[in-house]
Amino acid sequence: KLPSLALHPVITPELVQGRVHLKCSYRSPSSRPPPRYLVAWSRLSPPGKKEQIERDTTLQSFSYIEMNGVNLRLGDTVFCTVTAFSRDVPEPQSLPEESKGFYAGIKFVPESLRIAEDGTEYALTILSTVPIVCPGHDDSCKITLQLSTEDLDSEFAGLPNVALSVCRVELPCSGSRCEAATLTVTAVTDFAQDGNRVSRIAAQPLGQRDLLWRAYTPCGVKVTVQDLPTGNCYSFTDPHIITFDGWRYDNYKIGTFLLCRSESRAFEVHVRQWDCGGRRSSTACNCGVAAR
C-alpha cells in the first residue's frame, strides 16, 4: 500500500520573463534523500473530460507550465497531479495527489445572480485570475472589459431586463497580481407581468494585442430576474383617486395637481383637471398628465 505524503499541490499564476505561466507548488517530505517528482498537467476540455497536456520530472518542489494559447488557453480549468518517487527505485513512493481546478481567465463573483424587480442593487465583482502582459513587458498594465446585457428569451429580445452601473471596467495589474473591479446590477422594473426572465451579462476584452487575449471570450454571468407585482394607483372619471395603498379620494377641483412624487428618486406625476360639468354641476375631469 502506497502512503499519502500530504503533498497538497496548489496552482498559482506567475509572470516569467514577460510570459504567463502557471506554477504547481507542493510540500516536500522530510525523507532522505529527497524524492523526485512526476508532475502531470491536465485541463478540462469542453465536453467535461480531463486531457493530459504535459508531464514534468523534477527534483524541485514546484513545476511551471506556460500558457501559450495552443495547448493551454484562457478559459481552461487546469489541474496538476504530483507523484513522489525514490531517486533509486522507479516505483512510486506515494499516491498521486491532484490540485484543485484553477480557472485561467476572467472570473465573475458570484458566478450567477438571482435578483428581483424591487430596485435593490446587487454587487458583482470582476477579476482576472492570470496577470496581464503588455506590449512593452511593463510591470504595470491593465485590461479593459466592455460589458453588455442580453435577454436569453427570444420573446423579449431588445427589451432590457438588467441595468448595470457601468458599461466598461478596467482591471489594473502589477506583476503577477491584478486588482478586481466591482459594479452594481439592478433589475429593470418594467411594470409588466412577464414572469421570471433570464439574462446574461457578457464581458469582452478591448484593445488587446496579446494573442492569448485576442482569442478569448470570457464566460458571462447568468442573471435570473424575479417578476414582482407592481403597485398601481388610479385617477379616473370626475376624478376618483385610488392610491398605491388602496385609499380612495375624490377631487372635484379645477387646476393642476401633484398626483405622485417619489422621495428617493427623480419621479413624479402631475395631473390637470378641467371643468366638465357645465353650469349645473361643479365637476372636474382629467384632461392631461405629465410625468418624469
From TrEMBL:
<dbReference type="InterPro" id="IPR001846">
    <property type="entry name" value="VWF_type-D"/>
</dbReference>
<dbReference type="GO" id="GO:0005102">
    <property type="term" value="F:signaling receptor binding"/>
</dbReference>
<dbReference type="InterPro" id="IPR057885">
    <property type="entry name" value="Ig_VWDE"/>
</dbReference>
<keyword id="KW-1015">Disulfide bond</keyword>
<feature type="domain" description="VWFD">
    <location>
        <begin position="231"/>
        <end position="292"/>
    </location>
</feature>
<dbReference type="Pfam" id="PF25776">
    <property type="entry name" value="Ig_VWDE"/>
</dbReference>
<dbReference type="GO" id="GO:0005576">
    <property type="term" value="C:extracellular region"/>
</dbReference>
<dbReference type="InterPro" id="IPR050969">
    <property type="entry name" value="Dev_Signal_Modulators"/>
</dbReference>
<protein>
    <submittedName>
        <fullName>VWDE protein</fullName>
    </submittedName>
</protein>
<dbReference type="GO" id="GO:0009986">
    <property type="term" value="C:cell surface"/>
</dbReference>
<feature type="domain" description="Ig-like">
    <location>
        <begin position="3"/>
        <end position="90"/>
    </location>
</feature>
<dbReference type="InterPro" id="IPR007110">
    <property type="entry name" value="Ig-like_dom"/>
</dbReference>
<keyword id="KW-0732">Signal</keyword>
